[in-house]
Amino acid sequence: MTPEDILSHPARVLTTAQREAYFRDGFVTVEGAIPADWLEKLQQTSDRLLDESRGVTASNDAYDLGPEHGHEKPHVRRLRKLVDRDPVFWDFAASETSPLPDIAADLVGPGVKFHSAKLNYKWPGAGEVVKWHQDIPAWPHTNYSPVTLGVHLGQVTSAHGPLICIPGSHDGPLFFHTDADGAWTGTVSEADLEAVDLASGVEALGGPGSLVAINCRTLHGSRANSSAEVRPMALYVYSSADAFAWMPPPSPTSKTGEIVRGGPARFAHVDPRPCPVPPNWEEIGYGSIFTAQGVTRRRRVETKTG
Ligand SMILES: O=C(O)CCC(=O)C(=O)O
Would you say domain 3-58+77-305 falls under CATH 3.40.50.720? Predict the structure, then answer.
């Protein structure tokens, strides 16, 4: 579906201005998107799983652990395959009472397919950055409807290492996310970034329950958390029902491919714009963006905001 087709369907949760901003800029932030009862359930479940991580000593299917992880001080960088960690996370992704799939429908059209979900934590002092990247080169689809809905479980200010999106980059080129030898790096090369106006980046800020929707082509990243609090952000990916993955997903869940709103598509929508071919994750495995990118400080983003 084109943006015009999608906008011709009545909005369920977002305003017309928010939907139009998403299609114009490639992202939109929405303050107060998630009601308090849902937020509380998500926060409590996240806290419990963080507590349970104290007994885990190495990264596994559930936890991506940072180098400082220990029983006394959990350092979980990511909860993987979120919808398989606790039923609350799948209810939030799919149930009739959750606003999340309706927000997705406002951005991809009435037929909504679930792709994947994770919860990224960013710990104060850990120096974790997410380097500039686009999402779709890691999990290409027949079209560019996939959208990531990032839900802030805590307050996010400039100091918390917020997501930063480059406006309009979804209409620009798709970049390789590989090094000179063709090995996957999960990030755009310094040479390619020379052509990008990184200073135009917009921070996705907001209180607990705020949301940022990012199109799969939009260039984005985040710098280290320099605040005193952890920054937990749940990231749910959906596509239109007529989008089909043409390579194995990096982090398949038991729910990947489920239709959560509307019905299955009878035709695939194929967008002619080319997409680089990622590694076959089924063959080489996928850790997380932190393991792919390495955890290094990123000069460009740090320079931007001092
Ligand atoms: O957690 C972040 O700040 C960025 C997340 C992200 O872009 C990703 O995991 O692909």
Answer: no
